Amino acid sequence: MAPSTLIGASQMAITRYWRVLFLIMLVLLHVAALRGAEDFWARAFMLAHFGLFITWQPFMRGEQRLNPAQLLGITIVLT
Fold first, then answer.
1. pTM listed for this prediction
2. Percent of the chain with pLDDT over 70
3. Which domain holds residue 36?
4. Pick from 11, 15, 2, 1: nearest CA to 71
5. Radius of gyration of the chain (CA)
6. How far apart are CA 55 and CA 16, in angstroms?
7. Cβ(52)–Cβ(24) below 8 Å
8. Looking at the domain assignment, is residue 63 inside a domain?
9. What ranges make up the beta strands (E) of 7-58?
10. φ, ψ for residue 17 (rounded to 5)?
11. Measured between alpha carbons, how far is residue 76 from residues 2, 30, 79 in Å?
């Protein structure tokens, strides 16, 4: 699958299911908060929450889209 096709498909899925993505993001945040800052899994949940927030946030404003360079940058920062 070409990168532009993959990006278009992911944008369409996030635009369509943004409520589910938002709910998952909030659940991850709450679970991380309940587990405490010193817990290994809490840190993993916070990282997952942050990744979903970065993915979700630009799509709430319909005029903005992530380009491949921005997606690569996000991936590098999160790994």
1. 0.55
2. 81
3. 10-78
4. 11
5. 14
6. 13
7. yes
8. yes
9. none
10. -110, 35
11. 20, 25, 5
